[in-house]
TrEMBL record:
Membrane topology, record value: Multi-pass membrane protein
Domain of life: Bacteria
Keywords, ordered alphabetically: c-di-GMP, Cell membrane, Hydrolase, Membrane, Plasmid, Transmembrane, Transmembrane helix
Name of the protein in question: cyclic-guanylate-specific phosphodiesterase
EC number: 3.1.4.52
Length: 529
């Protein structure tokens, strides 16, 4: 990956890792704020409903008491009783008597002259005979209005404010609705009646409690269970915000305390990887690669016919195995430089040996990128020209990973072969489409992967695979080299199966050139038949 790209990705990942918990914290804060507000609203609506029911209960009880009176209506004795009733019920302001649209008398006003205080037809009459005048003017004070509730010619007057007289620090809007009439008859001072009436109409279909969120307000509707009453509460968002801010700070603190360490962790992880990649990059620049050589032996007589060059990274005085850095090198676009350096090391370390034993060979592992063009071939050609080393002494090991673009790979492989370099398929059997390659790729040999050799002599199902690969290779006229032979039993089995060559600890471990040269010159000339 390009350095700049890597940085961008790292920064994005780190930011995401930091912001994700913060986002969750803020989201939870929002949920909590909403939940708390809903709870508070609900508690408030319950209190308001109970209050309205209480006032209404007093009105009904007062009417009942009036119906029990035995005195002639509006006589002095009757008026005394009416006053007693207004004093008994704290919310009742006046108790009066009416007949056929005319008020006759009341506790406060005494007898009323005919025509003096006309009573219009009720605004609403319930099926059980309750009459409602939702908004009647009060004598002596034009500013004030009362709710009149009447039955059987008796009525009580209530200040409409007593229905909504609930202590509220949040200044929410509250209205009480007569649900049969669907009409608001009491509301807090300054409440937006149109809005409340609309909210009631929109949310009154369900039964019991109902809550709704609107853009600028939360609304709760609560219906009384035993009276034709409902309460509508509307809480503006501004009230919620005060709550929300403190919760937001809490959410941010929690989110950041999880997000920042997570972000640091991600950043460290990424940059550590990045720095390892950077380290590898500078190692390649400073030519810090080394090569070890592992013998490849003829199974017929155990003589070494060649070696495989295996790269090592000299890092802080230690040799790092290729499995740990080759994939990174492939990703970082360093593999071609490594292949070139391995070739240079081989030629400088083994040049003499190769010239001395012209049938001895070195096989080189090439990377995915090396199979995409003829670049490495031309490097190879240039280095070998006039070196006294024959092309067939340098062999190419390609893994199936390199065949992702089969047409290009096929062309490159053919070019190596045309130039006299035998090509091997490495780790054969581990890629998932090995057989299809065999059909379309012309190669010289297969290296059977160690995992198949390991199963020889075991009961495992895969232990039957090796003989099939061998038989197939033979029928295609391909040489077979078995990898990872560790004991004699495996070697014997493979030899019986007709495998020509083997590689593994049984014949020799990967070793530095000096060691290889010593072993070979000591054993010459037979060892290198
Ligand atoms: P490979 O090409 O299949 O190499 C064989 C690996 O098996 C080597 O591991 C070798 O040390 C190990 N091996 C050989 N015989 C035995 C045995 O009897 N027992 C056990 N347990 N292991 C055995 P190494 O050197 O770690 O290389 C690993 C892989 O790295 C190689 O697998 C090859 O794919 C890759 N590699 C090595 N050098 C290069 C290189 O220069 N360029 C590229 N592109 N890849 C390389
Ligand atoms: Mg190999
Ligand atoms: Mg292999």
């Amino acid at each position: 990956m390009q350095r700049s790209w890597f940085l961008v990705v790292t920064i994005v990942l780190t930011t995401l890792a930091t912001l994700f918990p913060v986002g969750i914290g803020v989201f939870m804060a929002q949920l909590e704020a909403n939940r708390r507000e809903a709870d508070q609203l609900s508690v408030f609506a319950d209190a308001a409903t109970r209050r309205a029911e209480l006032v209404m209960t007093q009105a009904i009880n007062a009417l009942q008491d009036m119906e029990m009176l035995r005195e002639e209506p509006c006589t002095p004795a009757n008026l005394v009783q009416l006053r007693r009733i207004t004093y008994t019920y704290s919310y009742i302001q006046d108790a009066g008597i009416y007949r056929a649209g005319k008020r006759l008398c009341s506790a406060l006003l005494g007898p009323i002259e005919p025509g003096q205080l006309p009573l219009p037809p009720p605004d609403w009459r319930t099926p059980d005979g309750l009459d409602y005048w939702f908004d009647q003017p009060v004598p002596f004070n034009a500013q004030r209005h009362v709710v009149l509730i009447g039955r059987n010619g008796n009525n009580v007057g209530l200040d409409s404010q007593v229905f909504v007289d609930v202590v509220d620090r949040e200044s929410r809007m509250l209205a009480v609705v007569q649900t049969d009439a669907g009409r608001i008859f009491s509301a807090t001072q300054g409440a937006n009646l149109t809005r409340l009436q609309q909210a009631y109409s929109e949310h009154s279909y369900g039964s019991g409690a109902d809550a709704a969120q609107e853009d600028d307000a939360s609304i709760v509707l609560r219906k009384s269970r035993n009276m034709p009453l409902a309460v509508v509460v509307l809480a503006p968002r501004a009230a919620l915000l005060a709550n929300w801010k403190s919760l937001l700070i809490g959410g941010l603190v929690v989110g950041l305390s999880a997000g920042v360490p997570l972000g640091i962790l991600v950043w460290r992880r990424a940059t550590r990887r990045f720095s390892l990649e950077g380290e590898l990059r500078s190692a390649v620049r400073r030519h810090e690669m080394a090569v070890h050589y592992q013998p490849i032996a003829s199974l017929a007589d155990n003589h070494w016919v060649g070696v495989e060059a295996l790269v090592r990274w000299r890092r802080n005085g230690r040799l790092v195995r290729p499995n740990l850095f080759i994939p990174m090198a492939e990703n970082a676009g360093l593999i071609q430089q490594i292949t070139d350096q391995v070739l240079d090391i081989i030629l400088s370390e083994l040049g003499t040996l190769l010239r001395r034993f012209p049938s001895f060979y070195v096989s080189i592992n090439v990377g995915v990128e090396d199979l995409k063009s003829r670049r490495f071939l031309s490097v190879l050609n240039a280095r070998l020209r006039g070196s006294g080393i024959a092309p067939q002494q340098i062999r190419i090991e390609a893994t199936e990973r390199g065949f992702l673009e089969p047409d290009v790979a096929r062309d490159t492989i053919q070019a190596f072969r045309d130039a006299g370099h035998p090509v091997y398929i490495d780790d054969f059997g581990t890629g998932y489409s090995s057989l299809s390659y065999l059909q379309s790729f012309k190669v010289d040999a297969l290296k059977i992967d160690k995992s198949f050799v390991d199963t020889i002599g075991q009961e495992a199902a895969s232990s039957t695979v090796a003989p099939h690969i061998i038989a197939m290779a033979q029928s295609l006229g391909l040489q077979v080299i078995a990898e990872g032979i560790e004991d004699k039993m495996q070697a014997d089995f493979l030899r019986e199966q007709g495998v020509d060559y083997g590689q593994g600890w049984l014949f020799g471990r990967p070793m530095p050139a000096v060691e290889l040269a010593q072993l070979m010159t000591r054993a010459t000339p037979q060892a290198v038949a």
